[in-house]
Specification:
This protein is of the alpha/beta class and 246 residues long. It folds into two domains: 72 residues, Ribosomal protein L30/S12 (60s Ribosomal Protein L30, Chain: A, 2-Layer Sandwich), CATH 3.30.1330; 162 residues, Alpha/beta knot (3-Layer(aba) Sandwich). Helices cover 37% and strands 20% of the residues. Helix 5 runs parallel beside helix 6.
């Protein structure tokens, strides 16, 4: 893990200052920006005693790849990694909605899934340690602040973790395009882990075998599949909808 991490984007930096200001070492902001939200970020950071450096926008662009920083970069201490022990603690404490991603390797998709998980009130996103995108600056930017609020829990063996969660009383529901069972016909008011596979490959065999049910999102148009982050959002909010009516 690098000594420092970089977080860019207005939402992401706002969330960082609100939820983990102790991690922030300094900010770099575009000197030519008159954005009011950026001004509020600067004021908050300075109020917390965090150094703010005003630099030319082209300096912010250097070395950031495709990260759309929106005029602000935060240089931070490394994010503390959530552990499998914390997952067990969440379940013991009554957490009843989780999202698991099996082989999702695109950082933007990971970030978007974290964002949907936060919006739906999921307690954590679970990923395999060796087959997942890392929480890069691009992923944190796509998460729009959710990287600071939703634990990302890397596990050694996803199938084994799902079986353990099932033994603890959670309903394991996998999304798969090759089943006739509909997402809208499964009971998501129960404590649930929604499991999404990688685009193209879908769920791996052992992951599928660890699910209580395999369901599909009904498709009525010409496309045969959805982006994984879109499918995650639909599935999470179907759980929200059912629970609101229960």
């Amino acid at each position: 893990m690098s000594q420092n991490e970089i977080v860019g984007g207005l939402h992401a930096v706002e969330s960082l200052l609100a939820n983990a200001p102790e991690r922030v070492k300094r900010l770099q902001v575009a000197a030519d920006s008159a954005d009011r939200r950026l001004g509020a970020i600067i004021a908050r950071a300075e109020g917390l005693g965090i150094s703010v450096e005003r630099v030319r926008r082209d300096r912010l662009d250097r070395g950031q790849g495709d990260l759309r920083h929106q005029g602000v970069l935060a240089w931070t201490l490394p994010r503390r990694r959530a552990t499998e022990t914390e997952l067990a603690d969440l379940v013991a404490g009554g957490a009843d909605l989780f999202l698991a991603l099996d082989g999702v390797t695109d950082p933007h998709n990971l970030g978007a899934c974290l964002r949907s998980a936060d919006a739906a009130g999921a307690s954590a996103v679970i990923v395999p340690r060796d087959r997942s995108a890392a929480l890069t600056p691009a992923a944190a930017k796509a998460a729009s602040g959710a990287a600071e609020t939703v634990p990302l829990i890397s596990v050694v063996n996803l199938a084994r973790t799902l079986r353990t969660l099932r033994e603890q009383g959670l309903w394991i529901v996998g999304l798969a395009g090759d089943t006739d069972a509909s997402l809208y016909q499964v009971d998501l008011t129960l404590p649930t882990v929604l499991v999404m596979g990688a685009e193209g490959e879908g769920l791996r065999r052992l992951t599928r075998e660890s699910c209580d049910h395999l369901v599909a999102i009904p498709m009525t148009g010409s496309v045969s599949s959805l982006n994984v982050s879109v499918a995650a959002g639909i599935s999470l909010f179907e759980a929200v909808r059912q629970r609101a009516r229960a």
